Amino acid sequence: MIFLIQYDRAMGRIVDLQRFDDDDRASAETSRFALELANVRTASLTEVVLLEAASEEALRKTHRRYFETLEELVEPAASGR
Amino acid sequence: MSVSAFISASKSAYEVAVSLTYRLLIRHGRRASQCWFTETIFPESSKSHVILAVVTMAQIDKLGDRLRVNAVTETDFGLLNEYRSSFGPSYQEVMWVLRERGRGHLEPTGRFPKTPGSIVAKLTREPSIRLTQIQDIAGCRIVVPSLQDQLGRKMMIEVLFTDAAPRVVDRRDRPSHGYRAVHIVVLVRGRAVEIQLRTALQHLWAELCEKLSDNFGADIKYGGGPEKIRRLLSTSSQRVAEIERAEEKLFATDAEIDEHPPATQTKWRSSISDIRQEIERARADLMAKLRRTIALFQRGRLNGGIQ
Fold first, then answer.
1. Strands, DSSP E only, in chain B?
2. Which of A36, B257, B270, B285 is buried deepest, with most CB atoms within 10 A?
3. Where does B144-226 have alpha helices with state H?
4. In 10 A of CB B127, how many CB atoms?
5. Which candidate from A34, A36, A52 shows the least CB-CB separation from B116?
6. Could you tell me the pTM of the whole model?
């Protein structure tokens, strides 16, 4: 599964998350480029990232920063994730 | 009819042009990976316009120079998009090999070629690096529970990519601003793809560092930022290294236990149990310290900043 994430670094949270099927790679890339171009035109600092994982659960494990707050990252069970 | 109008007139004409030019370039001694055709469609334009050109690595490095001084046009931005897109087939092949040939032991999350912001940041941070020298434009990440898993997966990846000149960058003993992990750069279809291999603790540290950078300033990732944050990252990186060294010792002791005389094995088992408890305590202490310090940081931020 492919995930197009718009992440507000200053706020530390996702502002939009779009999901694409694996065979819809071209649409995902086109959407990403449109968002990046819009960011360039408006000088926006929102991070646009396109990631691919077996599931959203797997993505949440390898890219926790997008989904969790600073406090959540260091919760008691976090060291083994 | 102009050349560009002719080329954009039909897909078949475009394909013919690509084929002929590639043949010409290769005949003149250029490898296919040193150049490629670029075709960028700007989705938001009222009239889609197409950039069609043969791009060489020298041109890409000139683009990198313009990006470094922030003098980019939208055409440059499109060219950068095309350059990173040229990593797509290599990236997809690496992901396929990891998933299909890794037999469930390698569960990568792939990052489609790097964002323009990250590329520009790297070029600015490292003035001597050329755009074509950046190794992590395309990459993926694998997180495993322990150091032993990391060692096993590293060996597996090196075997899977034997023909792709795997280059291991081991940042565990020589961390980069506290960052510890194993990176394996493979060369597939003429493009470098970086595989990040992290243990759960190394990953926790890296995510924490990224998140602190989001909250308190991007230079934290590269050794900058407030002293208290730098100290936290430095000491916690060292603590993670110590815990992992203890885990390594535990694994080695456990593996050798059968080689000891039966009469002393009970003693060795007791020793292993002690090491295991020590590791658990060290992990718990680390997490408690991180929680306390981060709570202080957050309060400091609300009260006007951290020194």
1. 35-41, 50-56, 109-111, 138-144, 167-170, 182-188, 191-199
2. A36
3. 147-160, 200-216
4. 7
5. A36
6. 0.83
B109: nearest CA partner in chain A: A53
Tell whether the torsion through CA atoms of A25, A29, B44 and B3 is positive or negative: negative
Interface confidence (ipTM) of the complex: 0.93
- How does pLDDT run across B229-262, given as a tens digit for each residue? 999 999 999 999 999 999 988 888 888 887 878 8
Q: Write out the DSSP string of B90-115.
A: HHHHHHHIIIIITTTS---EEE-S--
C-alpha separations of B71 from A25, A40, B113, B125 in Å = 30, 12, 22, 16
Of B77, B19, B229, which is closest to residue A40 (Cα–Cα)?
A: B77
The pair of structure tokens assigned to B277 is 């408890």
Q: What is the DSSP letter of B199?
A: E
At B222, give phi and psi (nearest 5°): -115, 30
Tokens of residue B60, six digits: 């890409």
Instruction: Flag if B208 and A74 touch (Cβ within 8 Å).
Output: yes
Distance (Å, whole) CA B172 – CA B209: 16
Q: Determine, for residues A52 and B145 on separate chains, whether the beta-carbon distance falls below 8 Å.
A: no
